Amino acid sequence: MTEPTSLAEAVRTHVRPGTRVYLGNFGAQLFSVGHELIRQGLRDLDAVIASGGLLLDQLLGAGVLRSATFGHCWSPVGPAPAWNFRRLAESGAGTVELHELSLGLFSSALTAGAHGVPFLPVTGLPGTGYTDEDWTGGLLATVDSPFGSTTVVRAERPDVAFIHVDVVDAEGNGHIRGPLGEVLLAAQAAQRVVLVAEDVVPAGEVRALGVTIPGLLVDAFARVPGAVAPDGAVGRYERDVEAYERYAAQSRTPEGFQEWLADEVLVVEEVVS
Predict the structure, then answer these.
(1) Those residues with Cβ within 8 angstroms of residue 242's Cβ, 6 or more apart along the chain or in another chain
(2) From the centroid of its chain, how far is CA 73?
(3) Contact at 8 Å (CB) between 195 and 31?
(4) Among 188, 152, 161, which Cα is nearest to 19's?
(5) What are the residues facing 199 on neighbouring strands?
(6) Minimal CA–CA distance to 168: which of 136, 194, 129?
(7) Rounded distance, CA 180 to CA 37, Å?
(8) Which of 3, 58, 179, 182 could form a disulfide with 107 if both were Cys (CB 3.0 to 4.6 A apart)?
């Protein structure tokens, strides 16, 4: 069963301290969900996010996370870095567990979670930081079997996956224009799925476009126009580069980030129509 809901209610229903939260999608960061997590004052979350980017940076700076399993955390408007991530990594404080995975390792971990197995064999990537410096933070291991030894990655099973779709129908069937990346694997691996849609349309329109996420996997959906802004959505709106540049400038210091947070997130009400 699926049900339409507001984004705020979806977060209140499906997220609490200690929840493991997947935040999609590859190439389109769900800032609307991340900002709602911050506004609701949630703490001790475990984020699972392939395209970490500045969304992950903001969650780290706001103190929402106890761990992050991610593909990258960087600023697309360099040479400015993702300042909160950089401060955390360089401090060595260890206040947030960081588990960095290549997209291949990330997808394999979700595949294992979707199949209900504890791990999946992967290419060992010798000579890289994933194996030589344990960038994954313990997510890789070596397993012996009658068929030989192999490197494996631990299964990833989010408690809830928030996934951005272009349109959704009343039965929870969603269409994504692209790119897909690991998003379907996340929907299959997660215990619960919430679709965050740019628009709700008749079922026939979703079927004509092609169902990317079937409603049988979906627990709830919310209509949130501009769900990934200031990032861009294919065929909907462009990335707001100036907003990214302002964020990079303000978040250069912890004090500047707190000012940005107060001005841009904490005072903004959820927009759903």
Answers:
(1) none
(2) 11
(3) no
(4) 161
(5) 167
(6) 194
(7) 24
(8) 182
Q: What is the pLDDT of residues 231-249, one digit of tens each?
A: 999 999 999 999 999 999 9
Q: What is the pLDDT of residue 130?
A: 94
In one-letter notation, the amino acid at residue 222 is A
Rounded to whole angstroms, the Cα distance separating 187 from 218 reads 8
Q: Which residue has the tokens 């969304």?
A: 55
Separation between Cα atoms, residue 174 and residue 163, nearest integer Å: 10
> What confidence tier does 90 reach under pLDDT thresholds 50, 70, 90?
very high
Two tokens at 95?
A: 């206040």
Q: Examine the pLDDT at 270 and tell me if it is beyond 50.
A: no
Quote the pTM value.
0.95
- Residue 233 dihedral angles phi and psi, to the nearest 5°: -120, 130
Q: Within 13 Å and on the Cβ side, how many CA atoms surround 113?
A: 28
Average pLDDT over residues 14-32: 95
- What is the DSSP annotation of 20-38? EEEE--TTS--HHHHHHHH
In contact, 166 and 175? CB cutoff 8 Å: yes
With a pLDDT cut of 90, the percent of the chain lying above it is: 88
